[in-house]
Design goal:
28% helix, 5-stranded antiparallel β-sheet, alpha+beta
């Protein structure tokens, strides 16, 4: 008798479109251990109910698909561009991660994930004392004279969304004079979960 089992989670509520329908995700499990990090998503094409043979591999830790359609499958889809396909897969991955984590009773460690992301931005650091994870995460510039790019903030929010399955509202600011461009002199930013209510004034 095999020590491993395949856990199947329904994905029919994941938004698709006319060219792809997500069916389920299959996760390898071993009794007494955490579910395998890698899984396979089953799907059908072109509004049909016929399941495709191979499925799409997914990294549950990173919240991304690790492969895309073969050229032969893309040809079956007609006029759909690879760009539109990749966008659909990225959006679906976020929803799939939400479903999987809810089904498995897992809460992502957002602070740890953000800290890992920030390693790619040498001038930024996680502000643990001002944050309220997982709902409000704050970061600060550690090197005041370092060049900074406001697009980094939105890139970080996007990467956190992919990794956690949660959407975040971005806010940034800092000390500046009226002549300064806030996109160039910001010294801190916050990421607030989209469904996290602001505190009401007393």
């Amino acid at each position: 008798m095999s020590m491993y089992e395949i856990r199947s989670i329904d994905l029919k509520k994941v938004p698709g479109n006319d060219f792809i329908k997500f069916l389920r995700i299959e996760i390898l499990e071993r009794e007494g251990y955490a579910p395998c990090r890698f899984a396979r998503v089953r799907y059908a094409l072109n509004g049909e109910h016929k399941e495709q043979e191979n499925g799409l591999p997914m990294d549950l830790g990173k919240g991304i698909f690790t492969a895309t359609f073969e050229d032969e499958e893309l040809e079956e889809l007609g006029e759909i561009s690879r760009e539109d396909l990749e966008k659909t897969l990225q959006e679906a991955a976020v929803e799939i991660i939400k479903i999987v984590r809810k089904e498995l009773g897992q809460e992502p460690d957002t602070a740890r994930i953000l800290g890992r992301i920030l390693k790619d931005y040498a001038y930024l650091a996680y502000d643990e004392s001002s944050s309220k994870p997982p709902d409000v995460l704050k970061c600060r510039v550690t090197k005041p004279k370092s060049p900074r790019d406001v697009e980094d903030i939105f890139e970080i929010a996007h990467r956190l969304r992919i990794a956690t399955g949660e959407s975040y509202i971005v806010a940034y600011g800092g000390s500046s004079s009226p002549a300064d461009n806030p996109d160039e002199v910001w010294t801190r930013f916050s990421l607030r979960k989209l469904d996290f209510p602001k505190a009401k004034p007393k």
